[in-house]
Write a structure and sequence with these properties.
Number of strands: 0
Distance between the termini: 21 Å
Helix content: over 70%
Largest sheet: none
Structural class: mainly alpha
Order of helices and strands: HHHHHHHHH
Strand content: under 5%
Radius of gyration: 19 Å
Length: 218
Amino acid sequence: MKSLILKDLYNIGHNVKSMLLMLLFFALFFIPGSGAESYIFTSGILCSMMVITTFSFDENSKWIKYAMVMPVSKRDLVASKFIVLLIFSAIGAVAGLLIGIIGTVIVGKIDYGNWNGIVTLIASTLGSLVLAEVFGSVSIPLLFKFGAEKARILSLVAILVPIGICFVVYQLIRILGISVTDNMVLILLCCSPLLGAMWTYLMYRISYTIIKNKEVFY
């Protein structure tokens, strides 16, 4: 398991500089206008998408075909991808928090005396981690099923579906006259890890079923 995780981390290492430049580029646009919170979420989701790149490396090198003749279980193969996704998501959320704090200091939008602001940043980081994990985990079953190239487009569609559902639910709440307070949002963010863990486990089971029943690998 450890070697599978290290393989992906080593392979993705040369993309670190380009990802950092991308995060800084997005920081220039999000932080001055929308603040650190939206940037933290963006950073987490961007980094979680690097899991797709690891599948591209595997596909180009025919890694999975090779792994199937080695003493590597399909369960470990699937689990390692979800652990790598969690690592990427955590890096993105923490990087978003650090860059977001630095950016808000530069533009003068942070108040260290405001405890609510600090709690919001921490809650946003937690929410970013969960959201990145949820969105990234949607991609993994598709990647195992269709390969990296086809799954890129399908992953975009799969990500847009839950976003659309959340938007419809939000509009219904507004129509019903239910007020969404900051405290309610904060509570939802704090409860999100449990929902995220349940969703990720579901995606893991689907991914394992796909690879267990698959006879031909890309």
